[in-house]
Amino acid sequence: MIEAQDFVEAARSRGIEWYAGVPCSFLTPFINYVINDERLTYISSANEGDAVATAAGAAIGGRRAAIMIQNSGLGNAVSPLTSLTHVFRIPLLLICTHRGAPGVKDEPQHELMGRITGRMLDTMELPWESFPTAPDAIAPVLDRAARHMARARRPYGLVMQKGTVALHALGRGWRPRVANSKAGPGYDYRDRERPSRSDVLSHVLAHAPENSVLIATTGYTGRELYALVDRPNHLYMVGSMGCASSLGLGLALARPDLHVVVLDGDGAALMRMGNLATLGAYGGANLTHLVLDNEAHDSTGAQSTVSTGIDFAGIAASCGYGVTAAGDHLGVIEALFAAEAHGRARLAQIKIRTGTREDLPRPALSPIQVLDRLMAHIGTAFS
What we know:
The chain has 14 helices and 15 strands. Helix 7 (197-207) crosses helix 8. By secondary structure, it is an alpha/beta fold. The chain has two domains: 4-160, Thiamin diphosphate (ThDP)-binding fold, Pyr/PP domains (Rossmann fold); 182-378, Rossmann fold. The strands form three sheets. It has a seven-stranded parallel sheet, sandwiched between helices. A hairpin with a 5-residue loop joins strand 12 and strand 13 (303-304).
């Protein structure tokens, strides 16, 4: 058995000061230790996939980051682990508990995942080893992880067994701030044709702050942004649907000198709606979240989503965003950027029409080239 301090301080000495995760009783000592230390960062994510994406955003922003999750939530993390960190080659330390380990009495819901945790990691081509159980084993484990992450630029996993870490009490604790959204541009729907996706993206390009990074969700949004103009401050998501906002949160927290603009879709926002609460709790005024809502999964044939009756702006306001707005015209965008967010994130829900140009291109650069170009632009690198 080890103390939480043994591992966290060894990780800190290797540059890991940033954590995101979802609690597990096995992880309680670690989470408590990190929360108790004001020099460390812990983001309590709505689900494990969002934790991966948020940590990935922090890594892009120059922070060495770790994810702490229970293996029962490993399924929630499959998409960003396979189509975000793997595709873009983003190194992260994954600490995954082993509930339901064979031969260990546990709850019935953990039995199957307990048997297949290692196989799942192997299937995702994510190298892993057992979490260290003795203080003198910590440094070699972290060094192996660091070598892999530096060489392969991909995550490395540590699987933690029950009883590995001694209890550690929660001291200062943490409470999310109370939602008190200020009046913004308002809910302004007009009886006219909705703007196109390209209209909205062009308006964002014209009005986003000079120090902006634009993160475009997967599908037509990223491809249309690329078609309009390809710039080093753009990141085109090619998978991990729904994770653009959590990635943006991580980058915005890691780099408060940047203004991060997340270009989301209604289908993606619905997929991980719980992340609105996380952004509302942690997001600062350097994070702007735009939901381009055409009430359809446009790139797969325009099948309807359920967003017709969903008030994303109202939900965001109740989650703690500083300014929220909704409308079906381009004036909402410039008003949102101009509004005082009182230290909190902004969100606008913009109703747009479906459809795109027939010759819509795909980025000529690979995802890794796009990310490396962005990181060079903001002055960071994986070390």
